[in-house]
Backbone:
């Protein structure tokens, strides 16, 4: 062992190796937000129970916390420090626990089939339709999924979709995920693939021609711009090339524009260099929002992560390349 090694098996930096992520939860770790600009520390091995500063973090930085340690600070005095998954530290007094969006999509099966609608606005109501007139009904909460029958009525220039509970919703009030009329050439009976629309902000998981899950996503703020120069999600047909339970490396696009994010959960790298990942810092799914990566709610990102291959072995944090012979998951990003 070199000078940087430790034989202290109780030391908190080694606790990360024993802190298993929660693979069956919306988030693999507990997440916190910095309440003020603060220091990022690493263990100063030459001084024992002490740390040294390695960089500064901005206010509202999001990060995962897996443990704590009391250590001497470079400026003197001791503090309780939050332990991060990569073994670095932040002053616990400068953190508050983060809330996380609870939105999630829907499994598609014999009971729930396409088309479905998602309510992405506040103040939306259901409607009853009789003849050529429509009457407002009860309020419908934002982020609600509504199963549709596939039938609709048009009154004036407004389309009303029939729901399975015998009410209607107006087309401008919801995001509709429709049945596909055709399929890409790459689709084979056992092919897993992800269909993402940057116009509607929708995601559908397919096994061959069978849709199995539908939800909303956030894409780049400039939906139809140039992905090389602006906050636009690149369109095309790609493959998933790597998977990370969490990562602080965003690939071609940053995770967020207005604050720093560490330990982004359920990250999957595409062959385009952009990522699909969980976003716990906003709830505007179905609305273009970010610099260009495809953002899912934590629950949806966890579902997709478990559904795609390869599975990450127990005790591993990442798979950096798809093993030979492993089926590749295709991601279609389109208008």
Residues:
């Amino acid at each position: 062992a070199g000078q940087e090694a430790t034989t202290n098996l109780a030391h908190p930096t080694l606790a990360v190796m024993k802190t298993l992520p929660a693979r069956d939860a919306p988030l693999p770790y507990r997440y916190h937000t910095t309440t003020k600009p603060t220091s990022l520390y690493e263990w100063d091995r030459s001084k024992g129970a002490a740390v040294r500063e390695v960089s500064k973090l901005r206010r509202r930085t999001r990060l995962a916390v897996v443990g704590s340690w009391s250590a001497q600070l470079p400026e003197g005095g001791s503090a309780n420090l939050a332990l991060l998954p990569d073994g670095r530290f932040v002053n616990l007094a400068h953190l508050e626990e983060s809330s996380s969006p609870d939105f999630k999509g829907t499994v598609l099966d014999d009971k729930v089939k396409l088309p479905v609608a998602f309510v992405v606005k506040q103040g939306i109501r259901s409607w009853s339709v009789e003849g050529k007139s429509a009457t407002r009904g009860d309020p419908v909460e934002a982020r609600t999924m509504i199963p549709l029958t596939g039938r609709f009525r048009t009154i004036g220039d407004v389309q009303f979709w029939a729901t399975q509970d015998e009410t209607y919703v107006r087309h401008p009030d919801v995001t509709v995920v429709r049945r596909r009329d055709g399929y890409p050439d790459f689709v084979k009976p056992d092919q897993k693939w992800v269909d993402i629309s940057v116009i509607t902000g929708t995601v559908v998981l397919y096994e061959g021609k069978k849709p199995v899950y539908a939800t909303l996503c956030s894409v780049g703020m400039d939906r139809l711009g140039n992905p090389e120069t602006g906050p636009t999600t690149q369109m095309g047909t790609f493959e998933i090339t790597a998977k990370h339970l969490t990562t602080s490396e965003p690939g071609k696009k940053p995770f967020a524009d207005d604050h720093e994010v560490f330990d982004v959960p359920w990250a999957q790298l595409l062959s385009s260099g952009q990522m699909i990942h969980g976003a716990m810092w906003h709830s505007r799914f179905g609305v273009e929002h970010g610099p260009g990566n495809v953002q899912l709610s934590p629950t949806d990102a966890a579902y997709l992560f478990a559904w795609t291959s390869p599975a990450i072995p127990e005790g591993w944090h990442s798979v950096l390349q798809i093993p030979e012979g492993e089926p590749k998951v295709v991601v279609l990003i389109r208008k």
